[in-house]
């Protein structure tokens, strides 16, 4: 009996010791797991409280570097710009700025031109980089993409320079002609000749100012605020009537054809001006005793039918080099001929903006020696009206942008004049 009690006591003591040892081993293991290692200190530094949240809402590309120039935190925009590759900052000037700031704690800022990644284009990416210390060990780099801002500034600067030049020409001519009239006061024939020239320059100046006003309007106004269904036949007839005198002087035949009774949805004044500019250009740049055709048709598209209005001439055509730029403001294929016909270089720019603001587009097909076809594509009245109403309702309920729904783009090859077979026997208008 005493032996059994002794064995039981020994077993109990052994069990207690085993439990104590196991508990101590578990506690030791837990403590070792919680202890930071050198590698964890190097790869996972702790950002100051709130910094992660602030970086996530910044528009700028953000990169946080540690004391070894490793990337602790980088926004998706920083990766998109190619600033971070392989866990390192890939732009050497920015890396040097970060090292200098880490050394002396001063905030630095610089503008750089970086090569674009993943494109075959040679243009640079303009950025503004700002580096500041973040705590005692980290450095914050903020990079702002200035490429679009610089492009807009260049467009504005070129536009102002072009406007100044275009206005200076007729104003200077009027000044010289007025002096010539004064000097020739005793010569009635000279006065009459100079007065005629003054009228030409005054008309050119008036047209330029009016087209600048028209361009400003189509860029700033929403044409769909006063939109209405418009018969394409009426737009074509108005455009032909506008150019009837110029065409008659050059013995140019104007022919209207295509599908009748089509309707588009938009601002009548802007659409009439756009189509009138296309017909006027076709007449002005066509040789005498040739033909200008205007045809309309419907093209089925998944997002709704499109109305195509094509203006075809038999002129000398446009080179591939010029086709890429003819819709730019003040660009002229033949500057000397443009001035002779009173062209300002703004007509096609106005057409482009009118088409875009109505949810359409304008394209050109041309071959040197074979003439040109400009095609104005606009949503058909029913589809465009339904889309406009849907977007207006969406704006009222969710605040979404009404422009988001305008994306019906047909293939550009349909602007080939051979696509308009109805022009083979059109209605000829005197």
UniProtKB/TrEMBL annotation:
<keyword id="KW-0472">Membrane</keyword>
<dbReference type="InterPro" id="IPR005467">
    <property type="entry name" value="His_kinase_dom"/>
</dbReference>
<keyword id="KW-0547">Nucleotide-binding</keyword>
<feature type="domain" description="Histidine kinase">
    <location>
        <begin position="162"/>
        <end position="382"/>
    </location>
</feature>
<dbReference type="InterPro" id="IPR003661">
    <property type="entry name" value="HisK_dim/P_dom"/>
</dbReference>
<feature type="compositionally biased region" description="Polar residues">
    <location>
        <begin position="408"/>
        <end position="430"/>
    </location>
</feature>
<dbReference type="GO" id="GO:0016036">
    <property type="term" value="P:cellular response to phosphate starvation"/>
</dbReference>
<feature type="transmembrane region" description="Helical">
    <location>
        <begin position="6"/>
        <end position="26"/>
    </location>
</feature>
<dbReference type="GO" id="GO:0000155">
    <property type="term" value="F:phosphorelay sensor kinase activity"/>
</dbReference>
<dbReference type="GO" id="GO:0005886">
    <property type="term" value="C:plasma membrane"/>
</dbReference>
<dbReference type="InterPro" id="IPR004358">
    <property type="entry name" value="Sig_transdc_His_kin-like_C"/>
</dbReference>
<dbReference type="InterPro" id="IPR003594">
    <property type="entry name" value="HATPase_dom"/>
</dbReference>
<keyword id="KW-0067">ATP-binding</keyword>
<dbReference type="InterPro" id="IPR036097">
    <property type="entry name" value="HisK_dim/P_sf"/>
</dbReference>
<dbReference type="GO" id="GO:0004721">
    <property type="term" value="F:phosphoprotein phosphatase activity"/>
</dbReference>
<feature type="region of interest" description="Disordered">
    <location>
        <begin position="383"/>
        <end position="430"/>
    </location>
</feature>
<keyword id="KW-0902">Two-component regulatory system</keyword>
<dbReference type="GO" id="GO:0005524">
    <property type="term" value="F:ATP binding"/>
</dbReference>
<dbReference type="Pfam" id="PF00512">
    <property type="entry name" value="HisKA"/>
</dbReference>
<keyword id="KW-1133">Transmembrane helix</keyword>
<keyword id="KW-0808">Transferase</keyword>
<keyword id="KW-0418">Kinase</keyword>
<keyword id="KW-1003">Cell membrane</keyword>
<feature type="compositionally biased region" description="Basic and acidic residues">
    <location>
        <begin position="383"/>
        <end position="397"/>
    </location>
</feature>
<keyword id="KW-0597">Phosphoprotein</keyword>
<dbReference type="InterPro" id="IPR050351">
    <property type="entry name" value="BphY/WalK/GraS-like"/>
</dbReference>
<dbReference type="InterPro" id="IPR036890">
    <property type="entry name" value="HATPase_C_sf"/>
</dbReference>
<protein>
    <recommendedName>
        <fullName>Sensor-like histidine kinase SenX3</fullName>
        <ecNumber>2.7.13.3</ecNumber>
    </recommendedName>
</protein>
<keyword id="KW-0812">Transmembrane</keyword>
<dbReference type="Pfam" id="PF02518">
    <property type="entry name" value="HATPase_c"/>
</dbReference>
